[in-house]
Design a protein that fits this description.
alpha+beta; Structural Genomics Hypothetical 15.5 Kd Protein In mrcA-pckA Intergenic Region, Chain A; 5-stranded antiparallel beta sheet; 2 helices; 5 strands; 29% strand
Length: 82
């Protein structure tokens, strides 16, 4: 699944265009590498996102094509938030 779609589907970022812009602006890394919005996210990947001064680091648990609002938080595990 594309990185921008995963960030939107998991509700880490509210809109896909914002997720796309964050990845294109080099504010998102996967496994320590800066990636483009089309990067293929897999379970086990560690995503780090910079929101201004705030950083969020999550581990990908699942990448389903469709998920309900209630199950979105089960797609990732927060490793670090600062």
């Amino acid at each position: 699944m594309r990185l921008d779609k995963y960030l939107k589907l998991s509700r880490i970022i509210k809109r896909r265009t914002v997720a796309h812009d964050a990845a294109a602006g080099q504010r998102v890394t996967v496994n320590g590498k800066t990636v483009k919005p089309a990067y293929d996210v897999k379970p086990g990947d560690v995503i780090e996102i910079a929101f201004g001064e705030r950083r969020l680091r999550v581990s990908v648990l699942a990448t389903p094509e469709h998920v309900g609002k209630d199950a979105a938080a089960a797609l990732y595990e927060v490793l670090e938030e600062s």
